[in-house]
From TrEMBL:
GO molecular function ontology, one term from the record: tRNA (guanine(37)-N1)-methyltransferase activity
Protein name: tRNA (guanine-N(1)-)-methyltransferase
Species name: Microbacterium hydrocarbonoxydans
Keywords on record: Cytoplasm, Methyltransferase, S-adenosyl-L-methionine, Transferase, tRNA processing
Job of this protein: Specifically methylates guanosine-37 in various tRNAs.
E.C. number: 2.1.1.228
Keyword Cytoplasm: yes
Signal peptide: none
Record-level GO cellular component terms: cytosol
Subunit composition and interactions: Homodimer.
InterPro entries documented for this protein: Alpha/beta_knot_MTases, tRNA_m1G_MeTrfase_C_sf, tRNA_m1G_MeTrfase_TrmD, tRNA_m1G_MTases_N, tRNA_MeTrfase_TRMD/TRM10
Localization in the cell: Cytoplasm
Record carries keyword Protease: no
The encoding gene: trmD
Residue sites binding S-adenosyl-L-methionine per the record: 122, 146-151
Amino acid sequence: MRIDVLSIFPSYFDGLTLSLLGKARSAGILDLTVRDLRDWTSDRHRTVDDTPYGGGAGMVMKPEPWALALDELAARPDDAAHAGDAEQNRPTIIFPSPAGEVFTQATARDLSSREHLIFGCGRYEGIDERVFEYAAALGEVRLISLGDYVLNGGEVATMAMIEAIGRLIPGVVGNPESLVEESHEDGLLEYPSYTKPSTWRERPVPEVLLSGNHAAIAAWRRDQQIERTRTRRPDLLPGDDS
Ligand SMILES: CN1CCN(Cc2ccc(Cn3ccc4ccc(-c5n[nH]c(N)c5C#N)cc43)cc2)CC1
């Protein structure tokens, strides 16, 4: 998979050279490039924002640098490998946005199957709306929100999405088994985990986990998942219409 990130704060993504994603990049499983949007400006001040038409607080990101950057990234030579299949060749262009669809594990799984993702990290009060229309001619455009709270830009959301997507790419996580029993993978929150010592500061590990009875352990874990989901996230339970 290829991932391109556009941001005016590219160093935000230095953390992606670490740990599992860093190893995946070194192993060639993940081709990730972070670019500074200002590289597509032409004035001395490398301007990317301006005042909003119609008034209002703050600044809006100018469309032209985005269009020039997306033109270049959406047509990178790697796509020539799929020159024959136009649809396969088109990237998925993701703009983090408080006005977007909410990012879930299902979104991560969907996006992890794509060939080429481009993340456009906005700042200020957002990006000129015409950029999203322009980008639709280059690929599938998705406005995606990390959740119902306001961040200062798209970088933190992009980091979270890349981590959630990246760990689903075959070969990134050493033991694919660990991707199965996770919160949200089966629609429920995960069961509690314990390790040595079996009693820690007078707190014992639940007896069933020491029993060796795998059927009883599986049943206890499922019960824990259901109980945790019922008390913490009833909205995830089937039949909940909240
Ligand atoms: C006219 N007014 C109407 C109210 N808006 C509100 C507003 C819009 C953006 C920002 C800052 N910002 C800029 C780019 C950008 C991308 C993602 C996110 C983001 N926030 N929360 C998530 N889950 C996010 C994600 N993912 C925030 C971003 C701040 C405040 C401004 C304009």
